[in-house]
Amino acid sequence: MSSIETLQQSFESFFNHRHFPTVPPSLYDPLEEFLSNSGKRIRPVLCLMGNELFGDIHQDAYHLAAAVELFHNFTLVHDDIMDKAPLRRGKATVHAVHGESTALLGGDVMMVVAYDYLNKIESPQLKKVIHLFNKTAKEVCEGQQLDMDFEKISDVKLDEYIHMIQLKTSVLLAASLQLGSIIGGASDHNQGHIYEFGRNLGIAFQIQDDYLDAFGDPEKFGKQVGGDIQSNKKTFLLIHALETTQGNDLTELNHLLTSSPADKVDRVLSIYRKCGIDAWANTLKETYLEKAYHHLNEIAVSAVRKDPLKALAQYLIKRDK
Amino acid sequence: MSSIETLQQSFESFFNHRHFPTVPPSLYDPLEEFLSNSGKRIRPVLCLMGNELFGDIHQDAYHLAAAVELFHNFTLVHDDIMDKAPLRRGKATVHAVHGESTALLGGDVMMVVAYDYLNKIESPQLKKVIHLFNKTAKEVCEGQQLDMDFEKISDVKLDEYIHMIQLKTSVLLAASLQLGSIIGGASDHNQGHIYEFGRNLGIAFQIQDDYLDAFGDPEKFGKQVGGDIQSNKKTFLLIHALETTQGNDLTELNHLLTSSPADKVDRVLSIYRKCGIDAWANTLKETYLEKAYHHLNEIAVSAVRKDPLKALAQYLIKRDK
């Protein structure tokens, strides 16, 4: 079984080449540049792990992993347009440098090239792969739309938020694992459990991400703490606080959501602490993590084969903060 | 062999149902509405004709035709964002009504559903179908990018313009025919000729479209005559006029391109007439039409089977205006 680092390197050497034609450079060069400023390649690693859990990694899994990575990057380029984001991974976004039209069109063509990679898969399961890939792609779009819809609504409920965040982020992690497992020859039973492992792990990760944005150590977290609070972003924490605080605290929280005093972050954090959000978030995260491990246990392969997925869960979810 | 009208009706009864989930309605309802405001369904008809030229129409051809129609509509939704177009087919564009983000995301999900239809194709040629579909999709994006690049350049050459317009419009017509012919079991030789028939016919159609925008009868043409001139759009006519006029006429034309006097359309048309653009455009259109017919003749099937394609060429290209 391969470690996360081995799979990251293995994918990188497969993926690290030009993916697009050279002409017209005005369309394709921004995309090459964006892809080379890589993230952690979590989703392609999940594809490879999903395969290796059930058998030796097949060349198909690399094509699949590349398709998933291109799809993920396509969503980032388009999301950045919608969010009017100036920065991504510390660099100016595609639309900020090259204009919205090129970013829009570039995202489109990146999506087409994702399907080029899928079309290289030789497995007789190709139709099933494309079906799950498409189902997931639609869900990710639905999640983004719900996220935008929620920006205009003040009383988003926790279960609605969980549904949205699951579509926006967890299903692609889950599908990456299941798609890899299809290449690896997993049974339907095992495919179902590996998907649910990924889906629950993704929700736990998002809870942690929201938590760290408010309470994390700025040096370890790597981005500005309190950014979500500053921008009134709906998060697990804000939604829980709006559902549970009462009286003066609720009045104060609602006031802070429509204003930006200099001490906004501190005042919101103070309300969060008063309603015990720290313990609540940790418990919720653990609940999803336990669900994830339950499904991992249910997968009918020897325990030792599951070690890389356990390591991945530990890599993504820190339990000792 | 089926007539254009029969194939249009046949496709319509296949296609005229809900294509997207109902939730979230904020994402999917605008797309259903856009698709129901149908165009002439030329591209799906070409898919069906491409199939029927070589054999009975297979169910696969309907799935293919739906994929091509969804892809075409996806490009329209995204192009309208890029062009900031307020109207499409006489109605407000998706982004004008629902905002740019929903139009962007809606286009994305329409593209995914196009691949859902491709994935329903049962033919063993599916990989070849997806390969040609993807190649064409990339070319259409390249054409749109070149079109935007050309807006910023004053000296676009005729061959560069033809290359761009071919990518932006002709290759999808050509590919629709070839994709249908793959389902129909055409040989590589015949596939090559049907593609070239469509490609050349598409260029002839675009020359005619540019011509009619300047010289057409407003009642027959169905849109404002002179619109391209008003917006300084690069067309076959403008590029030829810039390449061939000299002296005062060229000075006047360049002046008109940077100003908008009330009589702009009349003054540009006067220059067009002086450089004999009418005869030139007609000759160029006929040249491409002849090329198209040459390739149609080369297809190795009995002449009578080609009648619907000849009727389609006559339907698209009027020779008696």
Walk me through this protein's architecture.
The structure is a homodimer of 321-residue chains. By secondary structure, chain A is mainly alpha-helical. Chain A is built from 16 helices and two strands. Chain A is globular. The interface between A and B is large, with 36 and 35 residues.
Provide a short characterization of the protein structure.
In chain A, helix 2 crosses helix 6 and helix 7 (126-151) runs antiparallel to helix 8 (158-183). Chain A has helices at 4-15, 25-36, 42-52, 59-83, 94-98, 100-118, 126-151, 158-183, 188-215, 218-221, 227-230, 236-244, 247-257, 264-274, 277-298, 307-316, and strands spanning 87-88, 91-92. The first copy, chain A, is built from 16 helices and 2 strands.
- Distance N terminus to C terminus of chain A? 29 Å
Overall 3D shape of chain A: globular
- Helical/strand content category of chain A: mainly alpha
Secondary-structure element sequence of chain A? HHHHEEHHHHHHHHHHHH
**How many helices of chain A?**
16
Characterize the biggest β-sheet of chain A: 2 strands, antiparallel
Q: For the largest interface in this structure, which chains are involved and how many residues does each contribute?
A: A-B, 36 and 35 residues
Oligomeric nature of the chains: homodimer
Helix fraction of chain A by DSSP (H/I, runs of at least 4): over 70%
Strand line-up in the sheet with most strands of chain A: 1-2
| Average predicted confidence as pLDDT of chain A | 95
Strand content of chain A: under 5%
Count the E strands of chain A: 2
Rg of chain A (CA only): 20 Å
